[in-house]
Amino acid sequence: TVGNALHIEQADSNGIDISQVNDNAINIKGAQRGIDISGVNEGMRIQGSGGNGVSIESPYSYGIQIIASGQSGAYIRNTESQGVDIENTGSHGLRIREAGINGIDINQSVADGIRVTNSGGQGLSISNTGAEGILVASSGGSGVRVFEPSMSGLHVFKPGGDGVVIDTAAADGLIITAAADDGINIIDPGDDGITVLNAGNDGIHVNGAAESAGIFINSPSSNAPSVVVSHADDSEADLLFGGDARIESEANYEIRLDADDDIANATFILRNSAGHVPLIVTEDGDLGITGHFSKGSGSFKIDHPLDPKNQYLYHSFVESPDMMNIYNGNVLLDENGSAMIEMPDWFEPLNRDFRYQLTPIGAAADLYISQEINQGAFSIAGGTKGLKVSWMVTGIRQDRFANANRLEVEVEKEAESKGTYLHPEVWEHQRNDQTHQDMKLKRK
How many other β-carbons are positioned within 10 Å of the β-carbon of residue 395? Predict the structure, then answer.
């Protein structure tokens, strides 16, 4: 047909009422519009068909268009095959507008409740429904299945309640395969964009996103976090991303990214349950740690001063079993062959157990410490006038933090670490060398 295959307008009761047919209730091929129904109580009611409730193939425009039905836009029950099967539509596969109750009500279909294949536009478009746009209950297979749409597989626009609700699915609540663009696109939801309750497996599972985000959330409409993960018995979120992205776990610790509240220029901070910040990394790359820092080795790494474009230069840290500080300098001896070295005013409150080294430069001398550190100074004697002396003093920290957190040098390994190495590749290499040496000695 060139126009509508079936056109019904302003019927007082059912537009079409078909019960207990053995094959397709309605089969329409090649029409401009498959079925056009306006202003009826129930747009279409099909019950107990042996085949498809409605089968429409290759319409030029809409497969089914139902506008302003007083009750259900389409009511289909107890079909042996698909409730609605629509293929190769030029525009909407199924379009329902302004339904008084359910946009589509499909009950106890043996196969797919709604199946839309190869639609040129939207697979399913439902606008301005008084209640649910789509309600699928207790389906044996997929509640809604959209396969390879060229545009949106499922587009829900400004619903009064939830955009999509999937309750107690036997398998996956929602599965989207090989979408050319976004699998799910949710814009300006009034409440939750996606809510997953009591999932038997993964709440949301994204596999193989092609060089893009598995889940992308852009510009949430409030200051609330974009992502929150928590458990029912937790007082705080386990994972929380918002304007100040952060990770929390049962209020024990918190990790923030791009924090700008009380930590100046912080890019990454970790805050403990007491509100203290034991670790911070600034935007300039500075690292701050308030506790012990343990490492296998340490060094600085800079561009090589003689070849900065092609080489690096490394220096190892100076290490000691004590919390040691090192101070040094050069001094010229006076006419008496002596000198007094003044230290900063914080030197004695910070240090104890002083040790000294003196080296004459340019000539030998019987140098010695004539007066140990007292009132922020110490004295050198035993040299000649004008002699240059290089000196070094070390001290052990005695500030309150150092006294409360003195380094324990030799420590037993934890029970779970007994018999293992921090760096097994080093010890295995040494053991192999020793075995090789033992074999050489035996041969001799």
Answer: 21
CB 37 within 8 A of CB 27: no
pLDDT digits (tens, 9 = 90+) for 337-383: 999 999 999 999 999 999 999 999 999 999 999 999 999 999 999 99
| pTM confidence score | 0.49
Q: What is d(CA 399, CA 109) in angstroms, rounded to the nearest whole number?
A: 78
